Every structure is written in C-alpha cells, then in structure tokens.
User: Which sequence fits this backbone?
C-alpha cells in the first residue's frame, strides 16, 4: 500500500503562477510553498502587499522564487503603468496566501489600490484564495458576505482550517497546510482528466419517514460527495449530482437532482446510470425504511412502539448488475476493521473501486471538513492522508480517472 497520493511531477513544469501575499502571521508559510512550487519547475512571481512585508522580507521570496518580488503598484521604470496588466496576462493561475479579510473585502468590491488587487481585477485566470485570520474576523457577517460574492464570481477558496491560532484562540481561520495548498494548485493546473465523460455522483443522507414529522436518517453532511462533484466538474466532466437533504449550495458545474428517500435516490440513479461513464456513490443511503409510515403524527403513549423496517433498494448492486454499467466507485463508512470490511464490500457489490473512511476516528468523516481515506481496487490500493475534503476529492478524482482509463485499455 502506498503511503501517499503524490500529484504528477510534471503537472507544474513551466506553469506560471502569481503568488500574492497579504498581511498576517501565516505569511511565513509562503516561503516553503514557493520553494516546493519551484522544485516542481513552476515559474513563480510573487506580489507582496505593504502589510505582508511587515511579516516576511521580500528578499526571502525573491531568493526562493528566482524572480524579483513585486511590492508597488507604480514602480520606477518605463513600464511602471503596465505592470499589473503584464502580470495578469503572464500567469496561468493566481494564488493569494495568506489572504486577509481586508484583501477579500477590496477584491469583492472592486477596490484596486495596490498591485495585488489590481492584478486580480485585470486577470481572467483562475484565482485561488487561502484565507488566514482571527476566527471572529472570519465568522464576521461582512467577511462571509464577501466570500459569497467572490465565490459567485468564480474565486475558489482553500480553507480556512480550524484549530489553534496565533492570537491564542481556537476556531476557524487557520491557513490550510502547505501540502493541501500544493495539491490544490496542482489539481487546478492539471489537464481535464475527465474531459468528455459523464459522471454521476450521489451525496448526503436519505430520510425514511416514520410519520409526517419523523424520519430515520444518519449524520452525513454531504460535504464529501459535494466536493467530489465539484472536483469532477473541474476535471472537465459533465456532472449530475443526486443529493439527499443537506445544507449545502450546489457545486459549480454540477446539475443537482434533489431527493429525500432511498427509493427516490434509486429511481433517479437508475434512470441515468445506463448512459453515464462513471458513478461515484458517496451518499449515505439508509439500509432500511419504515414498512408502513403513519399517515398522521404518532402520539406519545404509555406502551412501547414497534416499527417494522424493510430493506431499501441496494443502489450500487443494481448499477453493477446492468449490462451496460458505468465505472462504479462506492464508499464504505466503517467504525472497525476498515480495510477488511471495505475489501468485502468491494467484492460483494462488484464495484470497480471503493473509498473507505473510519467514521469513528476523531476530526474526520461525518460532520467534519476533513477526511482520511483508504482507496481499494482489485490488485491495488492507496492511502489518502488526512486533509480537507476538497483536497481529497481532487486526489480521488485523479485516481478514478487513472483506473477508468486502465479498465478501458484492457477491455
């Protein structure tokens, strides 16, 4: 079993990346990121705001990037007035790390009073923003509104993570790990590994009603499935997302189909499975439903209540039994014997690949923004180390693309 999923070493070769650095204690982490990007043969140009320079010296990033660091909107020279246009058109991608609340506010409202915001406004390239700030600043209504504005315009947010902060508080607002940043950049610049394919993703829980107001369900938030749908769309696929009830906005580039029960999810999946290329079954579908739901709210009584539960349709098994079946990826949420149980499910459901996670582990899985996954297929496996669900989703999509192509080549 491999210890880590490593992005292809050639993805970043000759890619042009503008790294913007704003004020914050996390600015020092940019040095290691720039070093790693350069080691992968990316061409890096760094822009530092005035506040960023209070935390990290430009000479450090100049030495690591191999290029002069840009600090002023209007510098000396004949091309001073065109610097922002040249950088905006030169790059393949813009990454701002760390991104302050002030930077987010200016970019959201089109204020361009420094080189970094001016380059962002002048560029048509993808913009990735990795916020880092005090938890109260991150949770402030103004910051969250600015985030929504920027996301609607296509800016992709990387984090923030939650945990101990430099100010001594604990909560959301930490810069995500350098490994995650590196993986996100690699994924953003990788070729569309699923281009031309139709991908069907299921996500979230189902609700099996007992009466008009009560139901059986589970703790699934849908975050992993939604991240996979987003990653598949970014990889060039045409994505349909069949989702149970969640409190999440539909991912960009995915067509949402809303369902409630396991039976409804079964019908929607089966109506599409025969013409899709890949199915990623990330939903936590209920295994049982109430045989005869009450038509009216059940009232509390003195006696015990007995419910008759019947099996729900096994969606994954039904898909893999099709004559024209898609490449099928199942999920296994386990609380013990993770790999053994996942291997059994791989064989029992006749899937091509299975992604297993330990939902009893602390800080990952249900209700969390991070996960850790064991990916298994016949003859191989890989461990996806703990990281954000968005990062793991992009890594998983690359593995799915590789296994899909390998299966097609041997068919």
Assistant:
């Amino acid at each position: 079993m491999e210890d880590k999923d490593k992005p292809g070493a050639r993805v970043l070769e000759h890619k042009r990346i503008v790294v913007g650095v704003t004020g914050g204690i996390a600015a020092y982490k940019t040095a290691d990121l720039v070093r790693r990007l350069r080691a992968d043969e990316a061409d890096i140009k760094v822009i530092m705001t005035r506040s960023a320079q209070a935390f990290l010296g430009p000479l450090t990033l100049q030495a690591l990037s191999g290029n002069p660091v840009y600090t002023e909107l209007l510098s000396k020279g004949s091309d001073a007035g065109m610097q922002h246009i040249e950088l905006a058109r030169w790059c393949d991608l813009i990454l701002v790390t760390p991104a302050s609340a002030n930077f987010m506010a200016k970019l959201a409202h089109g204020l361009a009073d420094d080189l970094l915001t001016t380059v962002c406004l002048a560029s048509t390239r993808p913009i990735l923003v990795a916020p880092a700030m005090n938890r109260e600043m991150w949770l402030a209504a103004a910051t969250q509104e600015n985030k929504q504005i920027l996301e609607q315009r296509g800016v992709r947010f990387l984090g923030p993570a939650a945990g101990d902060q430099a100010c001594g508080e604990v909560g959301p607002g930490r810069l995500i790990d350098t490994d995650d940043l590196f993986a996100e950049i690699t994924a953003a610049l990788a070729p569309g590994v699923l281009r031309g394919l139709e991908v069907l993703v299921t996500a979230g829980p189902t609700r099996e009603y007992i009466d008009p107001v009560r139901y059986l369900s589970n703790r699934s938030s849908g975050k992993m499935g939604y991240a996979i749908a987003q990653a598949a769309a970014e990889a060039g696929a045409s994505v349909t997302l069949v989702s149970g009830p969640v409190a999440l906005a539909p991912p960009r580039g995915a067509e949402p189909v809303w369902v409630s029960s396991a039976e409804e999810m079964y019908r929607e999946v089966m109506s599409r499975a025969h013409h899709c290329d890949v199915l990623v079954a990330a939903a936590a579908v209920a295994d049982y439903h109430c045989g005869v739901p009450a038509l009216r709210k059940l009232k509390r009584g003195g006696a015990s209540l007995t419910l008759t539960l019947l099996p729900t349709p096994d969606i994954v098994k039904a898909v893999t039994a099709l004559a024209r079946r898609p490449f099928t990826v199942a999920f296994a949420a386990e609380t013990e014997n993770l790999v053994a149980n996942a291997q059994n499910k791989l064989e029992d459901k006749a899937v091509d690949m299975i992604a297993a996670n330990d939902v009893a582990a602390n800080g990952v899985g249900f209700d969390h923004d991070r996960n850790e996954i064991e990916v298994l297929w016949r003859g191989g496996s890989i461990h996806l180390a703990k990281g954000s669900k968005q990062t793991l989703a992009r890594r998983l999509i690359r593995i799915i693309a590789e296994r899909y192509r390998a299966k097609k080549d041997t068919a």
The chain has two domains: 16-189, 198-293+306-410.
